[in-house]
Design a protein that fits this description.
Length: 383
């Protein structure tokens, strides 16, 4: 897998020289919040030492930063010991995710549940379920009278599911994906549990918000899914979702402005490409215009009655649910170590990660305490 500066430049938004991008790099002494404007990189640590503080203070103004030169001259890499190194673009924000936000993914969650996490049973369950509700669910507005009527009919048929509740009911599924500071960025390894035998990537758009819950920008993400764990029991969601290196974001947050708005998120076409070490290749797509709940509604439901003093990131969910067989007929898709996953959309760029196990991925050791100590040592915060 290429992880050099050339491939990062190829991963930027198609109009990156006009975009306003927010992210983090490490020049050898610790995380540095940076703003890219008109293709030029600005060190924003003199304005605020973290990305979360820049967003909270509405301080993303290049005039107040220190120029580091053009982005295409920085030779950014994702290698562990590289200088400078690109990092996940978020830091202290709470990392949230919304699930079952597309009709296809809703059906796949029901299939996982009814198959009890057994990939071999999925094909038969899928055939029966699609014959009953496959077409109707995609046109239902969550929380509407039509949704309530469908719910009543499915209960009567003995086909109701907790996943259908969050797919078409009034309340979205919102959960905490992982701790603050634990996401990985562009070019890093992404981890799946070593004991998972049925899993897949989840190509998504994530929104970034300040303490007020208002989205300030968007970024590509991979919210890795372990279908066997969650399929056995929804109470295993934490074990299925929150593992070392299991959440990636990048390459940069694209800030909203007159040229890039929430409507661009709503109209995004997300493409996925998986290239396996065995020569296997899979192409997929997730169209945001098919999402069941509007992104701003999901942001409101994520905010709910919470307080996020450092803001939050919200994965919006995905349409992608791979059913193609990889090895054995009827067992569908699952990752292999060494798979390279590319998630892309023109105005956000391309997020590239290589699959390993959560055991083998670089251990997460730089948490909030380490960040505070590092910023204090660099004179960026004082007692």
């Amino acid at each position: 897998m290429k992880r050099d500066s050339e491939s990062l430049l190829e991963a930027l938004p198609s109009d990156w020289k006009q975009a306003r991008l927010l992210g983090r790099i490490d020049r050898g002494d610790g995380p540095l919040p940076v703003l890219v404007e008109a293709g030029e990189v600005f060190d924003m640590s003199g304005v605020a030492p973290t990305v979360s503080m820049l967003v909270a203070d509405a301080a993303c103004d290049a005039v107040h930063g220190r120029s580091l030169g053009p982005l295409d001259g920085l030779s950014l890499s994702a290698e562990r010991d590289a200088t400078p190194r690109i990092l996940s673009p978020v830091d202290l924000q709470c990392v949230k995710a919304s699930g079952v936000t597309f009709a296809v993914s809703a059906l796949e969650r029901v299939i996982e549940e009814r198959a009890r996490g057994d990939a071999a049973r999925a094909a038969a369950v899928r055939e029966g379920l699609e014959a009953r509700i496959g077409g109707s669910i995609g046109t239902i507005v969550p929380g509407s009278e039509e949704a309530a009527a469908l719910k009543a009919a499915l209960i009567e048929d003995g086909m109701w599911s907790q996943y259908l509740e969050v797919a078409i009911g009034p309340d979205a599924e919102i959960f905490t994906k992982c701790p603050s500071m634990s996401t990985v960025g562009w070019g890093a390894d992404i981890g799946v549990r070593s004991d998972s035998t049925w899993n897949n990537p989840e190509p998504e758009v994530a929104l970034v918000a300040g303490p007020d819950g208002k989205a300030v920008g968007a970024v590509l993400g991979n919210d890795v899914n372990l279908r066997d764990f969650e399929g056995r029991s929804a109470l295993l969601l934490g074990k299925a979702k929150d593992n070392n290196a299991s959440a990636s974001l990048g390459p940069f947050i694209r800030l909203f402005d007159d040229d890039f708005t929430m409507d661009d998120v709503r109209g995004s076409e997300i493409t996925l490409r998986i290239d396996g070490p065995d020569g296997y290749a899979l192409d997929g797509r997730s169209s945001m215009n098919q999402i069941s709940r509007d992104p701003e509604d999901l942001m409101r439901q994520a905010m709910s009655e919470h307080h996020y003093p450092d803001g939050f990131v919200l994965y919006l969910g995905t349409l992608f649910a791979p059913t193609q067989d990889r090895d054995q007929p009827g067992r569908g898709f699952t990752h292999k170590i060494g798979d390279v996953v590319r998630i892309a959309t023109p105005r956000l760029g391309t997020l590239v990660n290589q699959v390993t196990t959560s055991k083998q991925a670089e251990p997460w050791s730089f948490g909030t305490g380490a960040l505070i100590r590092n910023l204090a040592a660099r004179g960026l915060i004082t007692a």
